[in-house]
Structures are given as C-alpha cells and as structure tokens.
Design goal:
45% helix, seven-stranded mixed sheet, 10 helices, 9 strands, alpha/beta
Length: 403
Amino acid sequence: RGEVRPPSSTLAMTLSAASAAEQRSSSAKLEALLAKLAVRKLELDRAAAEARVAASESDASDDEPILSPAPNAVSSSLSPRTNPGVLRVRPARHTASVYGSKAYWDARYGAPDAVVGENLRKGETNNEWYVGWRTLRPYALDYALRSHRVLLLGIGTSTLGEEMSADGFSRVTAVDYSEPAIERMRKEQENRLRRFRRAEKRGDFSNAENASSPSAPTPPTAFEVDYRVMDVTRMTFADSSFDCVLDKATLDTMCQLDDDDEEEEETKRASRAKGGDDDAKTKKSASSRASRMLRESCRALRPGGTYVCVTYGAPSDRMDLFLDLELDWDLVAHREIPKNKTKYHLYALRRRGGVDVTKKKRDGHRRKLRRGRDVSGGDSRREQHGGDPCVAGPVPRERAGHA
C-alpha cells in the first residue's frame, strides 16, 4: 500500500522501448536465418542434380553415346527417361558444383520445354532468378536512365532485357556463355517485336497519355536487346562501354563455385601455409571467379557509371568482394528487396571519376515539379488579384523514357 508506482505513461514507454528492441533482435536473427537457408537451398539443389546424374549413369547401357566434357563438367539434370533424345554427359569425379558446368546450363536452357522468364507454378523450373522487372523496376530507375547503355550479366532465359526494352530502355546488351540461352532469347525477342507490331497496327497505343514522372509506366517500345554469347569473367567489351551494369544472381553463382573450389584447395593451402606461403589464401581470392567478374564489370563501366547487384548475400558476405582495392568504385547504396517471406539485397557501386547522371536527372525533375506547383499556385493568386505579368507560365510536361 505504501509503494510508489511509476506513472502509467512512463511504464508504457518502457514497455514500448523493450518491445522495439526485442523486435529488432528478432528481425536480425530472421535475416541471418534466411541468408543461411538461401545458401543451404543452393547446396541441396546441387546435391539433387548430382544424385540424378549418378542415377542416370547407373541406368546407362554400354552402347549408349556418352559425351566427354571438359574438366569440372557435370551431367545434365535432364533424365533420358523423360527426354530420350538428350545425350548424357559423363560427370567429373570430383565434387565441383553443378552450376559450374556449361553442359548443365546448355541442357537446361536448350531443352524443348525450357522455361523462359518467370514461372510461378509449384514444382516447376523458374528461370527468372530472385525478382522480375516488375519488382526491380523502381530500384533500377534510381541508377539507370532509359537512354543509358545497360549491360545485363548472365541473362540465361530471363526476360529482364525484354521487359526493360519494352519499358523504354533503348540500349540494352545481355550476355551469357550458354549458346542455347542466347539463341532462345533472340527468338523470344522476335516474338515480342511481332506482338508489338500487331498491337501497334490495332492502335492499342494511340490513347497512351504522356507521363509526368520518369518512374511512371510508359507505352511499350520496340527497342531491341543486343544478345551476345560471352563469359562474364572474360568480356570483350572496350573499357568504359556502359553506363550501368546489372547483375541478378550471377555473382551468387560465382561465389558458390568459388566456395567449392575453396573446399577442394583447403588441404593444399594448409600445406603451403606450413611451407611459409602465408598469402596463399589471398592469391586464391584474387583469382576467384567472383573477383574476375567484378573486375570486368568495373572495367566495362564508364566513370560515374553504376554496378547494380541483386544477391541473397548479406553485407557480411559480400562487402569484402565489393570493396576490393583493385576495384575503382565506391559503394553508394545497400537496399533490401522483400519478396514474400524472403529478402534480397541490392548493392549499388559507382565508378570513380564521373558525374552521377541519374541523380542530376532526378534533381532536375524535382525542380521542374516544384516550379510547376509554384506556377499553379501563382495562377490561382493571379486570378484572385487580377493577374500578375511577372508570374512565369506553366512548365511543359516531358514524356517519360526520353531522357
């Protein structure tokens, strides 16, 4: 009865602060768990593919044709029972990731029933990795203008390039080292342009309104994607060829392959370290696939251009790669992209020595919008006070997509 109790408002504030701290802690734990699950999923996919390869090998007859791949190649995951016309590839005897085999990707993308783009049907292959253009669009428009030269890495059979070109991006180049993937996407592009011409002939775009914001939807456009067969670790583009390099899941594949190589080389590194070669791990890291891909991406960017990476890797797993001293760029943004119960990470790195054109464009657009609001306010005041010849006229609207 004699106790002094704190006011109810103070108690509520204390409980609220404790609840917020607990919520932040739970969110951090959930983020770490999701990252681990994403890595585990890649490992399980690899194990499942290798198990299918082993089963396929055991069922093969002596006179069945076997292709001999280069070292590190792994068999296609396609079963001869469901695809009798597919020749199998004998796997290498070590445990290299299935994602490192060009034969795997060629078979996946070259199959008659290969999926193009997003496929949300449960239990079926989805070749639109992580997120599609609809989700990525508001993020990408912060780093690339529609007039920019954009390079897409490891395109596979993703429709990202097709959707960007239809959305007004006029200079998109997409590369992949799988010839079947590039051939299929060239055919997909022909189909898109054919559909566009039919819709244009029907007059479907005649009533499209001009948009006042660069991020607003635009009428479809008939720009073409330049599809090329190319290895992302050894690209043949000239230096400073692109304004934006966009990578979605390709770096993750490179990191997965490097992790596999790291396991295979662990014993050798230990023996080299005993012999006094303490920088063996540094040498290995410098020659990794992920590092080579990032160096090539940085080289292909113009000064002021931006490398945009969408990955499942949290900063603790990716920042060492991005901030390598050999890379002439700076981190300008780390953002999270939620999708259902998963969360992906977007990193934007700008090459040093140039102007941020996208920021300049956005700032100019904001100034025009501000001026437009001032003008509309001035018009109303002019009507009230009999007109003021010193007030400027309305700001003309500009069509989104014509940067």
